[in-house]
Amino acid sequence: MVRSVNELGLQRINMPQLGESVTEGTVSTWLVKAGDHIEKYDPIAEVMTDKVNAEVPSSYTGVIKELVANEGDTLEVGQLMCYIEVEGAESGENRTQPEKPEKAPENNAPADKDQSMKNRYSPAVMRIAQENDLDLTQITGSGKGGRITRKDVENAVNNKDQASNQPNVKSQQIPEESQKEQVEDFTPPIIRRKPIKVNEGDREIPVTGLRRTIAQNMVRSKTEIPHAWMMIEVDVTNLVAYRNAEKDQFKENEGYNLSYFAFFLNAVAKELKKFPELNSCWAGDKIIQRKDINLSIAVAHGHELYVPVIKNVDEKSIKGIAKEINELSRKARTGNLTADDMEGGTFTVNNTGSFGSVESMGVINYPQSAILQVESIVKRPVIINDMFAARDMVNLCLSLDHRVLDGVICGAFMSHVKSILENISSDTTPIY
Amino acid sequence: MAVLNYIQAITKALKEEMERDEKVFILGEDVGPRGGVFRATDGLYEQFGEARVLDTPLAESAIAGVGIGAAMYGMKPVAEMQFADFILPAVNQIMSEAARIRYRSNNDWDCPITIRAPYGGGVHGGLYHSQSIEAIFANQPGLKIVMPSSPYDVKGLLKASIRDQDPVLFLEHKRAYRLLKEEVPEEDYTIPIGKAAVKREGSDVTVITYGLCVHFAKQAAEKLEQEGISTEILDLRTVYPLDQEAIIKAASKTGKVLLVTEDNKEGSIIGEVAAIISEHCLFDLDAPIKRLGAPEVPAMPFASKLEKEMLMNSDKIETAIRDLAEF
């Protein structure tokens, strides 16, 4: 994140990586100006990323020399934000982090520091990498200026072949990095053939931050994942009765609402434990089944949509889930969601019923493999034992990644969720 | 097996061919009792007599012209140009007559002449005794240009050239004459014309060259081997027409190619080699194709230091190979 510029103690502060798969951030407010003296870890700027708003701390104690980025600028991770003149320039940090100085190295600099040729690929290197599906960013070049030589890729191919010959199958502990790489590699294939005309009086809203992330994620999900859909209807008359009986007391005791949504999350988490196939993601040459059941939930605030995560839902009571829903909603409303709150989701449950929908086709929250939409609970006439009855009905709509999942397994999952929900009572589902 | 130098191997080849086939005869300046200025025909006049070892006037056009006429009439002449630099008056005969006659006569006539000419610098010969002239002839279909790199090769290739039914321009590096020595078999053998030879196997860099430069490339490769740099050396042997298959194979093997010539770089044989590689080997190339040749000034300076500067040597090749290996 911080790289030395020269020996005089002038240091760069670059846009830090603020969370998984974040590639850029927008400087919303500078908290310092040139000439300010700051301590190490003091916040220097507020930065808005597509996931969170965060403060960037200083990595040094010193005097701000120059603010390079302007407020409103969007910088890629690693791009220069400002220069800081460090006190006691002889401190170790200069020397311990000499990676990639901005200016070309002097002639007497050691050759291995020069990485100017790192991303220059010869035809042979490109061909071998493509034929063998190699990620060149993962290969260290032995050539001049860090260039990856044909021998380097040939060695990588040999190593890969050896690795794939080893019999041990990797367990489910996949490092986050490998997953991250794949996410970042995706370029949405958006082709705009004609510019769209703006008429007089139209308002043009620049697509930034969260809106752009949502757009990118949706395009990525819809273009990459072959979606399939199914819907079941569930009779939740018992659930409605149970929840109505408990909700006032609960509110009084706990101070927040006992929502239906908590019951749905509870049922989904229980069944994900039985059907880990749905708690997984597609990783190209393999499917990764997640051990933890972390449910992403969609929380709207104004025009913004956040997808925070409730972790280990299968280990939590109805009350515990209700509490987290309440907490995350509050954070979303006040803009206090952290990167940590947003990460690690393995399956998404979307409360579409909260805005009155009765049927919808969700777009999968990439790279998960399914999303469940919980629709509005509506009273409808239903035939039971050849007689009409007024029942509380709800539709559950599942979108699934057809590469990972098929109709049979999803049908079984959905009917188990239905069974839990239809049999909810104080006996089967205690609140505490 | 006797150790022969380059010129002894030539003499041997000439002698054996003249013994084998009485149609073979030699013509050139001072080739008779004098035995040639470089002693290539030493003893042949004595052995075969003045009818088969002809001293000619100082007229290269006549040497070539007489030879071509005799060849078309069924003889197997070996014409010697005293220095390759002096071949220019004979260009018309060689290109327009020798190289064309088979095509022009629809195979009724042919011209099995061998024209030997010493080329190259390094003997303090100045302008008229040091030039490389192969590129002048290297786009004349019907003509073959052979440039051997060692005593063994020169014997086998000269025999093959004399036996060839078409004209061959046989270029010998005059500095190689007494510089290069190796064991040369007594028995009769030929080396096919039009085929290149891998002179050294390697995996880091491919050097493609011909003539005396093969010797310098070998020296450089031996030195670099101690640094862990492995060099493949392809000796073209025949520079026209080129052995495309061997060039493609050698270039593709390492993906890093150094082309070496003593000739002025621009317009030289190795430019054509580079073109073949770029046409066929793009997706095996790991570095730009590198050419090492003389600067664009006339060969060859008379001043010793300048001559040395202009000439190819193993140090220049070594540096170029190392650069490519590190690329």
From TrEMBL, chain B:
Cofactor: thiamine diphosphate
Protein name according to UniProt: Alpha-ketoacid dehydrogenase subunit beta
Domain of life: Bacteria
Gene Ontology molecular function terms on file: oxidoreductase activity
InterPro entries recorded: THDP-binding (IPR029061), Transketo_C/PFOR_II (IPR009014), Transketolase-like_Pyr-bd (IPR005475), Transketolase_C (IPR033248)
NCBIfam families: PRK09212.1
Gene3D superfamilies: 3.40.50.920, 3.40.50.970
Organism annotation: Gracilibacillus oryzae
Upper classification of the organism: Bacteria, Bacillati, Bacillota, Bacilli, Bacillales
UniProt keyword Oxidoreductase present: yes
Domain Transketolase-like pyrimidine-binding: start-end pairs: 4-179
Keyword set includes S-adenosyl-L-methionine: no
Keyword tags: Oxidoreductase, Thiamine pyrophosphate
